[in-house]
Amino acid sequence: MTRIGSARAVITTLIDSVRLAVTTLTVLPVRAGRIDRGTAAGAMALAPLIGALLGLVLGGLHALLPQTLLGAALTVTAGVLLTRGLHLDGLADSVDALGSYQKGPKALEIMKKADIGPFGVAAIVLILLLQASALTGNSVNIWAIVTAWATGRLGISIACRKGVPAARPEGLGALVAGTVPYPVIAIAALLIGAMATAAVPGTLWAGPAVVAAVIAATFLLLKHATRRFGGITGDVLGATTELATTATIVALALVS
């Protein structure tokens, strides 16, 4: 009975983790289950999988649309709608805080403001422009899109890795900070790197090299953000996702 009870507890935690990952990272109206540090760890570990599924949907849509700027813009718009634009909001708030050159509580106060400053507006415009430009024409295939969106969500797992503190004692950052073990990140990175071999036809190394470079840049970005803010927040997770996704899809378009 003890083993059966333990197995049921593991299954329940996994299901609740999937629910939390879906409700946090997509617009799908999935009813949340138990929310605690255990389910948060599972949800943040599953983030790359959710990203891959989002990329698959967007890649399929992109293949059906005209390979023009309009088609690319519609694909990017669909990506924003599927995530409720939360990652873009986090990007704007994080960039505003970083652009202020303030540290600690002062930077966090800027991040919490309801309005978006000029740095944030510029960041959103540039990110959407870069994504749409990268998707224009036949420069990327469906696997490049899946790779980019999976790598972007891997950035969330990296931000939530063991040893990284939360900037505030409350909020999403406090719930998920320091929950994801390094081996989980390593396995996800290897799987995404393997998938990336199909992202650039004609070469096996270009896709994985792009993924490796973006992962390295993500670690550096998070080190800087943690130093400035004292840890991670939900906004930092959103910013990391958008920057990693954009960097990946732009780089894959350039090497294709």
From TrEMBL:
Pfam families registered for this protein in UniProt: CobS
Catalytic reactions on record: alpha-ribazole 5'-phosphate + adenosylcob(III)inamide-GDP = adenosylcob(III)alamin 5'-phosphate + GMP + H(+); alpha-ribazole + adenosylcob(III)inamide-GDP = adenosylcob(III)alamin + GMP + H(+)
Molecular function in Gene Ontology: adenosylcobinamide-GDP ribazoletransferase activity; cobalamin 5'-phosphate synthase activity
UniProt keyword Membrane, yes or no: yes
Subcellular location: Cell membrane
TM segment ranges: 40-58, 64-82, 116-134, 140-160, 172-196, 202-222
Membrane association type: Multi-pass membrane protein
CC annotations in GO: plasma membrane
Pathway: Cofactor biosynthesis; adenosylcobalamin biosynthesis; adenosylcobalamin from cob(II)yrinate a,c-diamide: step 7/7
Record's keyword terms, sorted: Cell membrane, Cobalamin biosynthesis, Magnesium, Membrane, Transferase, Transmembrane, Transmembrane helix
GO biological process: cobalamin biosynthetic process
Top-level enzyme category: transferase
Names of required cofactors: Mg(2+)
EC numbers on record: 2.7.8.26
Keyword Magnesium carried by entry: yes
InterPro entries: CobS
Family: Belongs to the CobS family.
Role: Joins adenosylcobinamide-GDP and alpha-ribazole to generate adenosylcobalamin (Ado-cobalamin). Also synthesizes adenosylcobalamin 5'-phosphate from adenosylcobinamide-GDP and alpha-ribazole 5'-phosphate.
Protein name stated in the entry: Adenosylcobinamide-GDP ribazoletransferase
Lineage of the species this protein comes from: Bacteria, Bacillati, Actinomycetota, Actinomycetes, Micromonosporales
